[in-house]
Every structure is written in structure tokens, then in C-alpha cells.
Amino acid sequence: MYHSDEEYINALRVIDFWGKGWEKRLSEPDHDYIFLLNQEGIKKYIDDDVQFHNQNHFLITHELDLHSIRGKIALNIGCGAGNESLILAHYGAHCIGMDITVQAANAADRLIKKVGRNGYGIQGDARFLPLESESIDLIYSSGVLHHSPEIRRSVEEIHRVLKPGGHAYIMLYAKWSLMFMQQRMIGILKGYLSREQQNRYMAESGERDWQTESRKNPHTDTFTKAECSKLFRNFKNVGIRKGSFNLSQIAKIGEIIPAERLDRCSKKYLRFLEPLIGACIFIDAEK
Fold this sequence. Notes:
Number of strands: 7
Largest sheet: 7 strands, mixed
Strand content: 15-25%
Shape: globular
Oligomer: single chain
Distance between the termini: 25 Å
CATH topology: Rossmann fold
Strand order of the largest sheet: 3-2-1-4-5-7-6
Helix content: 40-55%
Radius of gyration: 19 Å
């Protein structure tokens, strides 16, 4: 698939970082218990997770109507531990949970089968989707494609495999947000002055929960709403909104004030800040 040895080696770095990271994460208490739940436990887990998405105005329940996906073919790009693939499958979609790591693909496969649905996990690179053109009804990807070093190619692939009238539901990190403006400022104070240096600092200082041994996140990018419009210019009816602001995004404050209190305060009093300095850009695009 890869056009040069350098491109292939870079892909291996990405696979190594996230693969080893998911090996660690999937063995930790906030993930491993899901695979031990019985059917009743899984149902409650899904209900709680959908409620969490709804309370936080995420793609699921906001842009994506879960009650409209029964019988549709869904692709979850960057399925991670399989949580969102599980939701899509539970609501009746034939879900393909895809991740660049075999560890995450296997996790999604186990969860989809756990609810007895028609779907599976596969390993794949979003820049080279292993699917026929115009074969997918909806594509969901949250918090993933900003880690792709060639996101333009990934978006082109999404457009290729979607059926006419199909929808892509994508979340990307927002450049003009409290979280990432703050991170850039910290990088500048540490001597990362050029744009290339700042991008390297952003990547290597982020995704700490997935860091193992000396491995650092190879790539993270952030986007403006205008850049997202350009990325999805070949789609129609493109909806773009900013969201996901929380006081816990302020550096060090979570070490002083309990996260639950910060979350309650943010939802009750500071929702108006989401379109201004929220950390995420939510995209709904139709082919």
C-alpha cells in the first residue's frame, strides 16, 4: 500500500505506539471489565455510555441518530477498545470496527460478537480503506483522524467508500480551543518555537495514557472550522460545530478540584463557551 520505505516505516511507528498503548489500556480497570460483563451488564453499559454521549453533546445522539441505523452498514474508523462499535452494533447496524492496530481490532471484534450482532473488527489504515467503493452507509470516527499524518487522503477514502447519500460523522481536535492553545503556549515557554517544533511537542506531550516505555505519540494535528470545510469540500450538506469545553481542560486544576465537581460546573454554567473554546470539532457530511 505504501508509496515509499519512509511511509511504511512511519506507519510501523504509528502501529507500534498505539498497539502497545492499547495492550496497556485494555488490561486496565476502566477497559478490561467490559469483556467480563454478561448480556444484562453489557446492555446497562451501552445505556450509560449513550447517556454520557448525550449529556456531553457528542456525535452519537447529536448528529448521529442511533434509531435510524438499523440494518445499515457502518464503519467505525479507529475503533479503539470497541466501545462505540458496540453501540452501533447494539442499535442494529452491521458494524465494521477498524483500527490500525490488531489489538484494538480484536477488542472491537469481541465486543460486537458479545451482543450477538452481525459485524466484526478488522485491522486497517484509514488512508487505504480495505473496502469496495460505495459500500458503506455511514462512517463514524471520533478522536482518531487528527492522528493521521495524511488526513486529506483519509477523507478522500471516506468519500470513496460511502454510498451516495451516506454520512460521515467525524470528530477532530479544535485548534482555537482552550485545551490546545494552552498546550501550544506551554510548548513555546519550553522552547518549542517553530511550527514544526510546536507540532512535535503537541504530539509527544499528548495521549499520555497510551505511552509505554520510551514510545511517544508520532502525530497529532488540530484544525479550524475553515480547514474542516476545506477537507470535506467534496461532500454536501456539511455541518460543522465546536463543542466539548470543560474546566478540567485547564492545566493542573484537576489536581486541586475533583473532576466530578468541575464537570458539573462546566455543564451547568459554562456551556456557552463550547462554540468559542471547545476542544472538539464535530462534522456531519453527506456524500
